[in-house]
Amino acid sequence: MHIAVCDDNIADRKQMERLLERASDRRIHTTGVFYIDSYGNVDAVMRSPMLYDAFFIDMTSGPVNGFQLARKLIDAGATAPIILCISTINYRAIIEAAIAEVPEDSVELSNHDILRKQLQSQILFLNKPIKVAELEEMLDHAIAHKAAAIPTIELRGEQETYYVYEDEIMFARKNSQYVHVTLTENRELDILSTMQNFYSQLSGFKHFVPISEQVLINISFIEKISFFKLHMKGGQTFTASPFEISLIKGAYKKYKAES
After folding, report:
1. Calpha distance 76→129 (Å, rounded)
2. What's residue 17's pLDDT?
3. Contact 240/249 with Cβ under 8 angstroms?
4. Three-state secondary structure along the chain?
5. In the prediction, which pLDDT does 43 show?
6. Angle formed by the axes of helices 111-121 and 91-101, to 10°?
7. Cα(173)–Cα(181) distance, rounded to whole angstroms?
8. With bands split at pLDDT 50, 70 and 90, how would you rate the model's confidence at 106?
9. pLDDT digits (tens, 9 = 90+) for 118-142
């Protein structure tokens, strides 16, 4: 498990590192080794937030406090538990106020609703000085979260990066030097990749099927299969050879049986 410690108090940061290293030694034969990266500023931890399975944060003296860093991590797509370590800033009170300020929205799964749920469930608290028993509870939670987490796929464009789940990608097509990816919710992104490399990136996911050297589809979005055509949800139609159609029918039949 990869853990990020971000604390602008160097003594507290070193102490957290020691506590986590000892916890790693105790758990080496059960839950495995903890890989710990330690940061003293916001920019450093924000370079690769998706790497981590848990964050231990307390930022008190800079322009960005621990809560604001947690918001940055959530906005960047991090889904790992964020443990705010309470010293001089009462993060509990800040979170309660933030949740109260998020406006009610009648739209199901709106951005506001998602944010409220993340603030309530993703952020946890740990009082300083750190007690070993309480730290162990946080680690148990992070390990359980990692075991239950649905893996995401990184789609890196020139201006934007999306972290999406398997069934948010509908299909992808080769477009010059890019792969043009069509996502749910009317989202699209061009990624600098070959179709072969993109398909390799998705090798651990079972719903993706190439129908030619130019097109890759997610079989969960198939609406109908005819002799030479695949009709996708949303109206897109792709032509495929009889051989490819036969393979896709088999994959689609298996998908429907498992779903």
Report:
1. 29
2. 97
3. no
4. CEEEEEECCHHHHHHHHHHHHHHHHHHCCCCCCCEEEEECCHHHHCCCHHHCCEEEEECCCCCCCHHHHHHHHHHCCCCCCEEEEECCCCHHHHHHHHHHHCCCCCCCCCHHHHHHHHHHHCEEEEECCCCHHHHHHHHHHHHHHHHHCCCCEEEECCCCEEEECHHHEEEEEEECCEEEEEECCCEEEEEECCHHHHHHHCCCCCCEEECCCCEEEEHHHEEEECCCEEEECCCCEEECCHHHHHHHHHHHHHHHHHC
5. 93
6. 160
7. 7
8. very low
9. 777 899 999 999 999 999 999 999 9
Short-list 122, 181, 119, 114, CA closest to 154? 181
Cα 171 from chain centroid?
A: 20
Residue bearing tokens 């079989």: 219
Burial category of 69 from C-beta neighbours within 10 Å (exposed 0-12, middle 13-18, buried 19 and up): buried
- Under 8 Å between Cβ of 4 and 45: yes
Higher pLDDT among residues 75 and 111, named by residue = 75
What is the number of other CB atoms lying within 10 angstroms of the CB of residue 125? 15
- Residue 6's φ and ψ, nearest 5 degrees, are -130, 110
Residue 258 pLDDT grade (very low, low, confident, very high; cuts 50, 70, 90): confident
The yes-or-no verdict on residue 259 having pLDDT over 80 is: no
